[in-house]
Specification:
The structure is a homotetramer. By secondary structure, chain A is an alpha/beta fold. Chain A is built from 7 helices and 9 strands. At the C-D interface, helix 6, strand 5, strand 6 and strand 8 of C face helix 6, strand 5, strand 6 and strand 8 of D. Chains A, B, C, D: It comes from Kaistia soli DSM 19436.
Chain lengths: ~260, ~260, ~260, ~260
């Protein structure tokens, strides 16, 4: 069964900036989606900020297995309601891959609970991405490392929670390092952050980067049914306790059948 | 040097509910603070929802080493601005101890990035809290387990991120289990979630519970200077790269000295 | 492609103890393998302590995707050489599922680096296994919990490293709790510890237990090529540095081409 | 109360190699111990391979709060019995700091359960150690990074378990990266691995390196009583169950009072 991926693109610099438009005439989201589409297991479509509901309607998200997020200049224009909707889908089990400047997207900060800040520099310097666990699904088909000739530097400290797995660590020409591939589990959903991808360089055409994204989609995909109601706190009343009816002792705050506070 | 603790209490049920008022005539926050004050290393004061800025002014938080959070019925009345302020102080290094129904507080959900949902039942059943790592600072002075005669059941799944350390796991009379003591690191701050504490039982007078809170305060306290600016993403320009001035290659998005996007 | 599983059984109690023989007349390993074989994706064979090289020759392990380990009385009779061989295969990428009393097996202790001790009691009491993340691959097809009517109690503290994921936590009739399903990544290999399985009860015929094992096999299976040489520390000489030939500065310990110390 | 530290040194290269002897005429262990001794809270002594029981008698270890390990050429000469003794003390709560080539020491491999392999190069290149969490106790007093002018390169993949915390990541002149400061909890003991320290360079005289070691000693120190018997698996018989006497159901393997298998 194919994995249904939506590549979300902010789609602003491609419209406003000549350099970016030249590299990504169809938009970064389209280029990323085309790269993924090379894999017969993946069916990739796109969504953008400018569409109604940013292209992320309830119905569409319900049919999305993995969402890829690229944003930069317009993080603030993303609707809080949509961010909450996406967070809910991740908790239900949808995979999420956050790219590059998406470190400061509302959705990534929402799911990490930390500032997600970092150091940066635009100097077109070289980046060498080292593979930490070559047997990780996300690292399949890579060598010990791969290089990106021109990149934006993203440097430590990267203020995210300690990850489930550190998949990649990057070396920069200018002297910094970065944990460039990190995995997280949040609720039923898997999250992968991957730092390469500055829009003034043709990074999403890079064969290794495309390989990482294909791998990451397969890793993040969770075929389990959506975890409906994961945000609810259900009451298990005394007469339905696993050990059979309990005699209520002491005082209670809620009457039988009352909902909990939120 | 003493550790400056603020015990934040919602202070609603103590006013509205006869049962709770009888148990905690001065408010739960005051009882918790008095328990902490038994330790000469700890200097505990209180703050409540009803005070201006909920008692959590910028100045006060700046002088707070560890914040303890108890809320239940009025999570929604806590100002988003104060929540963000507290989150920032945690990232800067302030310790945070979240108690019981605080699992659904805005601040805990904000820092976890997950639903923080769980199962619950008010039946006054027994809880047995098992110690996983008896050498952990939070478990000092405890036996293999301690018991709370009457408690509210909080059952798994508890939808939080996998913790840094699982310190306690609880057994319930009715048949559920709960990871009742969990640690997290978020930015420069340490977070401890501890589940016992329902307001209709005198749990914060329990000797073992008081011991856990004293221990947790010491564990969460971080004497390092506040991590100022942790939410910023500073630019390291090409001429200030650690390896010395870099020649800029390729195109850039920002002009020299321009701030990054957020 | 089918997943090639070897179920390793100590095969001692089945021979010596009438109770165990009645429940598992063909040996526990055979029962476990038959349960796995219900899944068309899994091809399960068995190996026992009594066979040459305990049935775990280099050739056979090289063709094993996931190894399941059940041992109890005869941990000490397992050859250290075979233990090291299995550890190497796990590091290379083979999955390992350790069952019940295998907590004290040489291979599990070898891979955890901790005592792996726990509390225990044989009273035939009930165990209720709670699912922490219902969307985890290992939990597919289960309800909120499943029960084992008669079990050996395994209680905390379970002295293992904090896991990658806590998949299950168990409640016992007698009052203890146990982290009964834990995942680890060690080198290229995934490890799952699952505590149910005492030999005097028919636990491996239990539908939920069989489901967990099928799921765990799929989770632990890593189709990546074996990480050959993972135990080596390769030299990258100065003239082969990623950044091109380096001029050697200062003194060195090794002459060019010399192997490192071990 | 002072923290009692033993700095264990292999003390081989200092005797055999002219370069090393010139840098560390009293032995590396002595230099490290003197650096620690600058802190009034630390009382540091030394032990070496050549002493009886390698200087690590049961009595001495019992009075050691934190052990620091430096070994390289003679890992194989360390007695397995002493390794097991040290591992037991770590599980009981003794802190352990493993330095540089100690990545391949018996004790580190024993506690990690992984190959602990890495890439290496002796070229005297520069290392820049980046601080990931500046509020971590181990990073107190450091800047964003510190540099070591001449170092041995240790490169990824470093085949250790995912750490509790990634404290430092290193950049190398030659193009590699390394997770150079990692923390672990094993049983009751805290472990810190720190990679700088090649013996042909005066690294343990470096102010920042000395600061890290002082900090790490304080972090690893656990004033809790030793976790005696952590390797035992105690039986809790049916009549001593926390919930009161249990009626034994079904069959048992052990007679009442019998010890478990190991």
């Amino acid at each position: 069964m194919t994995i249904r991926v939506v590549v979300w693109g902010e789609n602003v610099h491609e419209q406003e900036n000549e350099t970016v438009r030249k590299i990504y005439p169809e938009g970064m989201h389209t280029t990323i989606a085309k790269g993924l589409g090379e894999d017969p297991m993946i069916e990739a479509s796109t969504a953008t900020l400018q569409e109604a509901e940013h292209g992320l309607s309830v119905e569409r998200l319900a049919k999305t297995d993995v969402l890829i997020w690229w944003g930069h200049k317009a993080h603030g224009q993303v609707s809080d309601e949509i961010v909450e909707r996406v967070a809910n889908r991740v908790w239900e089990g949808m995979g999420l891959i956050v790219l590059h400047s998406g470190h400061f997207s509302k959705i990534f900060k929402r799911l990490m609970g930390t500032p997600c800040s970092l150091k940066w520099r635009e100097a077109g310097e070289k980046e060498r991405v080292w593979v930490i666990n070559r047997n990780h699904q996300i690292a399949q088909g890579l060598s010990d490392y791969f290089e990106i000739e021109q990149t934006e530097m993203y440097g430590e400290p990267f203020t995210v929670p300690e990850p489930m797995e550190t998949v990649f660590v990057t070396w920069y020409e200018g002297g910094e390092v970065f944990r460039s591939g990190l995995t997280y589990q949040r609720g039923g959903g898997k999250i992968f952050y991957f730092s390469p991808g500055h829009e003034t360089y043709p990074i999403y055409y890079n064969t290794d980067v495309k390989q990482v994204l294909k791998n990451a989609v397969k890793w993040a995909n969770n075929p389990a049914p959506a975890w409906a109601g994961i945000t609810n706190a259900p009451n298990t009343p005394a007469d339905k306790a696993p050990n059979g009816p309990l005699t209520i002792k002491g005082e209670t705050l809620h009457k039988a059948g009352e909902a909990g506070f939120r």
